[in-house]
């Protein structure tokens, strides 16, 4: 090992002739610049140079660190273009000679590190990759960028990006912006910044939000939300406006990637930003009758397809600010969030052109609560079809369609209502109208379980059905002395025959092969 007491020039000579270096120390990067400049001060060289000399000195210090030549402790430079002035008598010849050696050492450092990255494995190659991107020379930056283009493994890529991100010069900023255009490198940059404390990462994250990659943009917005929810919300809404106004094909993926798993503060900030954008819209969206802009429809549709609970606050912001926007109502059904039920119930019972859309949306929300709202809407529209306005007729058809789509749930709910303390004729009528094939077996099942004052209602329903199966249930009802008179009355009306008060006589008639035709 070379002694630390040897002169700086001899150190450089040894470095230029060195072969494969030993393992790289962990703290080499942090001591890089300070080590090189401290050695220059010890040599009493007057330097009035900005970036060139400082970078070259850093490169020489880098190679010293790689070869484990112990550096003298000194704080690292805050800026790579810092001018260092040591007030000693000038030595022009020595200075020029030293600068030439330093610049040559910088070029050799790049070649040495590239060779190390391509030939070594594991931590050694990763450390060399990070040191290469930390150099700050144009040759080092170009070599690091070439390595990224070669699609190295994840560890090498991450090490190069760490090196660029550790710098604060304009060259590094340009390289980072170029790399953000790549899906792979951009995602890694954002991932590294997500774990970076403080606000220093905000400018890079803002640059990442301008990426053409959907995943990189969404990842950057999420990372930005933990530092500045308001900035993340502004980017989210701006992206929705731009992409939604075009074709919206990438908007759904961006919305899902951004919202799913996001911090609640960021979700609320996005909802607030949507409200602000709607209120300040030049078209005056709040309460307006004019069509909503394309981006708002596209955003509502994307929130619906997101399928996550985080999408509800932004979607509710659209509904509360704009009103019953058809695309937002449809998105409520697609999202299936129970928090949408109160708003959809208000739209449904308003019986206006948007009520049918609210009924369809409620039909897609699972659970008894949405089903009860649909049944309540159906109870309010028990009128002859010819007397219904077209909007209400469309709403009734939409409610019926939603209930038919949930057959088993609806039948169970209607029977439960009939068995409960608030049984209503509308529930029986809905059961018979919507499910004629299931109505008779269900009525037969609950006929003797419902309250006594509800049983005449069920008998009347069976008489309205009037099928052979309904008549068989009416005959069975004659076994109950309290129901027998009413059941017999319905049987006589249906069959135009009277076989007396005994159910056995009616059963013999039913078993007659020709009875089906007579009925």
The gist of it:
The chain has 519 residues and is mainly alpha-helical.
Descriptive account of the structure:
With 519 residues, this protein is an all-alpha fold. The protein is 66% helix and 0% strand. Helix 11 packs antiparallel against helix 12. The chain is elongated and about 125 Å long.
Q: Assign an overall shape.
A: elongated
User: What is the oligomer described by this structure?
Assistant: single chain
Q: What structural category do the secondary elements indicate?
A: mainly alpha
Tally of DSSP helical segments = 29
The overall pLDDT average reads 75
> What does the radius of gyration come to?
40 Å
Major beta sheet summary: none
The N- and C-terminal alpha carbons lie at a distance of 112 Å
Low-pLDDT parts are: 1-57, 64-95, 284-290
Helix content: 55-70%
Following the backbone from N to C, one meets helices and strands in this order, namely HHHHHHHHHHHHHHHHHHHHHHHHHHHHH
Q: What proportion strand?
A: under 5%
Strand elements, count: 0
Question: Tags for this entry?
Answer:
single chain, 519 residues, 29 helices, elongated
């Amino acid at each position: 090992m070379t002694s630390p007491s040897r002169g700086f020039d001899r150190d450089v000579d040894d470095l230029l002739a060195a072969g494969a270096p030993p393992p790289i120390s962990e703290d080499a990067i942090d001591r890089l610049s300070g080590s090189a400049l401290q050695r220059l001060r010890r040599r009493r060289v007057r330097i009035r140079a900005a970036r060139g000399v400082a970078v070259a000195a850093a490169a020489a210090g880098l190679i010293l660190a790689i070869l484990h030549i112990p550096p003298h402790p000194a704080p690292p430079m805050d800026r790579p273009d810092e001018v260092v002035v040591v007030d000693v008598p000038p030595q022009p010849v020595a200075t020029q000679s030293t600068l030439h050696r330093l610049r040559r050492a910088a070029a050799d450092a790049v070649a040495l590190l590239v060779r190390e990255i391509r030939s070594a494995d594991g931590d050694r190659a990763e450390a060399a990759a990070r040191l290469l991107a930390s150099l700050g020379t144009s040759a080092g930056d170009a070599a690091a960028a070439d390595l990224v283009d070669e699609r190295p493994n994840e560890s090498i890529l991450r090490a190069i990006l760490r090196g660029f991100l550790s710098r604060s010069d304009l060259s590094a900023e340009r390289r980072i912006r170029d790399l953000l255009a790549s899906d792979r490198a951009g995602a890694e940059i954002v991932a590294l910044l997500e774990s970076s404390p403080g606000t220093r990462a905000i400018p890079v994250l803002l640059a990442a939000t301008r990426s053409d990659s959907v995943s990189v943009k969404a990842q950057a917005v999420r990372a930005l939300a933990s530092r500045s929810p308001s900035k993340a919300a502004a980017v989210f809404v701006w992206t929705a406006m731009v992409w939604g106004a075009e074709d919206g094909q990438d908007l759904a993926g961006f919305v899902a990637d951004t919202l799913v798993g996001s911090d609640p503060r960021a979700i609320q900030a996005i909802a607030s930003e949507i409200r602000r954008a709607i209120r300040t819209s030049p078209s005056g969206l709040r309460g307006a009758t004019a069509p909503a802009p394309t981006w708002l429809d596209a955003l509502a549709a994307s929130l619906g397809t997101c399928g996550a609970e985080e999408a509800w606050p932004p979607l509710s912001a659209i509904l509360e600010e704009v009103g019953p926007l058809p695309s937002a109502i449809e998105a409520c059904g697609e999202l299936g969030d129970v928090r949408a039920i109160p708003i959809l119930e208000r739209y449904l019972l308003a019986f206006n052109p948007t009520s049918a859309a609210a009924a369809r949306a409620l039909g897609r929300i699972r659970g008894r609560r949405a089903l009860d709202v649909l049944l309540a809407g159906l109870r309010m529209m028990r009128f002859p079809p010819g007397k219904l306005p077209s909007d209400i007729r469309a709403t009734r058809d939409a409610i019926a369609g939603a209930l038919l789509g949930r057959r088993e749930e609806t039948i169970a709910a209607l029977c439960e209502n009939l068995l409960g303390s608030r049984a209503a004729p509308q529930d029986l009528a809905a059961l018979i109208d919507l499910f004629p094939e299931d109505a008779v077996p269900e009525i037969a099942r609950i006929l003797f379980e419902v309250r006594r004052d509800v049983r005449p209602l069920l008998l009347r329903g069976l008489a309205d059905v009037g099928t052979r199966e309904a008549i068989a249930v009416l005959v069975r009802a004659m076994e109950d002395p309290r129901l027998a008179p009413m059941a017999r009355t319905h049987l006589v009306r249906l069959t135009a025959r009277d076989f007396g008060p005994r159910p056995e006589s009616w059963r013999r008639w039913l078993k007659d092969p020709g009875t089906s035709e007579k009925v």
